[in-house]
Amino acid sequence: MHDTDCADSCPACPCPSPLHLNETRRAKYIGLNACGYVLVPEWHCNACDAAIRPDFISLGLFPGTPQYPETLYSLEVLEQLEFLKLQGDTSTTSYLEGLGELHGRWACDEH
Fold first, then answer.
1. What pTM was estimated for this model as a whole?
2. How far apart are CA 27 and CA 78, in angstroms?
3. Side-chain half-sphere of 39: how many Cα atoms within 13 Å?
4. Cis bond before residue 41 (omega within 30° of 0)
5. Nearest CA to 25 among 82, 71, 84, 87?
6. What b-and-e string marks burial along 47-83, b requiring 16 or more CB atoms within 10 Å of the CB?
7. How far apart are CA 53 and CA 13, in angstroms?
8. What's the alpha-carbon Rg for the chain, to the nearest Å?
9. CB 5, CB 47: distance < 8 Å
10. Cα dihedral sign, 90-33-40-52
11. Residue 32 pLDDT grade (very low, low, confident, very high; cuts 50, 70, 90)
């Protein structure tokens, strides 16, 4: 064990390898009760050249794409979609359109 705080260090390198903020992208958050935009940081490790991004799933968010997401869905949205699909023939597109209506046609898109 060592005395260095590794909270801001690269998880892929021997500690301490400091991370530097590489860029911040805007992603749309879609939840059951709200939608909006969040800033998603990406850090860079100079020692191993790794790009470090937040672990969305551990935060209860699920990216719409496997790479760098432009849309993040809350766990509740996916749980409700699964429940509706188990109850009958619900398409993902129809569900998201209905959720968009609930949020006022993605009012977050206006900002």
1. 0.69
2. 17
3. 6
4. no
5. 71
6. eeeeebeeeeeeeebbbeeeeebeebbbeebeeebee
7. 15
8. 18
9. no
10. negative
11. confident
